[in-house]
C-alpha cells in the first residue's frame, strides 16, 4: 500500500479547528471518566474485604464516591479484579493502573495467552500487561508497565513462552492464528530507568556486553530461574535509540542458590564457572530491546525530536520483521512468525505506550508502515458498552483509535499533549511524503 499524496480531509479539519480538538478532548475525557468509575468500583468490590489484615488492605481513599454508583454492567465489563486481588497488589507499579480482566496477559507454563478465572481462581501468573489491538492498523501489541524487580521473571517469561492467541469476542475464524512459532522478539521501552530522580523502570538485563544476570521467580512460583545475557548493544542516533540484543535461557538447577537480580562484577566473576550448568541450548530465546531516549515522563518529545520518533517507529517495525538475528531454539528453525506481537511499555504502560501504539496504527493504516503480516479485524475485540463516539467524531480516526485503545487498557494516551502529538506526527508523515 502506497502512502496517499494528500492529507485526508478529517485530519486537515482537526488540525485547523480548535473547536474540533476541544470536542475530542471533552468526549474522550467523559468516556474515560465513566470507565474509571466502573473500574474503581470493581477495585472497591474486590478489595473492601474486612477479613483482610489491615496492613495488607488496599488504600481505598482515592476511590471516588461516584465509582460506587457505577452501573453493574459497566463494572463487569471494566472489571480489574485480578490486578486488584490482594495476592497481586504489590505487582502493580501504580495502584491506579490495573489491566482489565478481559484483556490481561496471562503468563502460563509453556504458553503466553489470556488470563482467565475459574471457580474464583485466576489462571496464569499475574503481569500488569494487556493485549491491545490496533483499530486501524490491525496489529496486536502487548502493552505493559515497566517491570519491577519482583515481576522481572514473569516479564521475561512472557518473552520466553510462545504466544497462544490474544483475547477475542465472536467467531474465532476472524482471528488469524500466528505461524507455528510466535514469540515476542521486540521489546520497546519508552522511559529511562531513572527520570527526574525517580525510579521509573527496573533493569532486567546487565549493561555490559557478555555479562549475564540470573532472575529467580517470585515466591510461590515453581518455574526455573532465567538467565538474561546482553549479547550486543548499539546506538542508532537518527532514531534516538539504544538497541540491545538479549538472550534468555532457563536454568534447570536443583539445590543451588542463584543470584536474584544482582549483577555486580564481583558476583558475576564468582559465578562465571557456573554459567552453563543446567542450560539447554535448545531453550535459548533472543529478543531485541529498543530504548527510545527522548520522551520525557508526563510529556511529549520536543519539536526537534519529532523526526527521531517517526524514525524510531519505523525502526521498531523493521526490526520486528527481521528474523535474521532471532532465535527461538533449534526446534523453531523455519517456523518463525514474520510479524509477531511487539511488547511496549513506559513506566505505567499507558501514556507514552498508548500514544506509541496509536501513532503506529495510524501510520500503518495510511501506508507509512507496512501492513500487519497477519491483520486482525477490530471486530474481534469487545464492543464498548458506552456505545459509539458521537457523529461529529465518526470520521476522526485518531479519536476512534484512542477510544478503542482505552477500551482495552485503562488510561491509554493519558494526557491531552499526547493526543495532540498524534495529530501532529501524522500530519508530519504526510508532509514528509510530499
Automatic annotation (TrEMBL):
Residues 32-52 are annotated as: Disordered. This is Phosphatases II. It comes from the Eukaryota. Residues 310-420 form the Tyrosine specific protein phosphatases domain. PROSITE patterns: TYR_PHOSPHATASE_2 (PS50056), TYR_PHOSPHATASE_PTP (PS50055). It comes from Agrocybe chaxingu. Belongs to the protein-tyrosine phosphatase family. Non-receptor class subfamily. Residues 92-429 form the Tyrosine-protein phosphatase domain. GO terms for molecular function: protein tyrosine phosphatase activity. InterPro entries: Prot-tyrosine_phosphatase-like, Protein-Tyr_Phosphatase, PTP_cat, Tyr_Pase_cat, Tyr_Pase_dom.
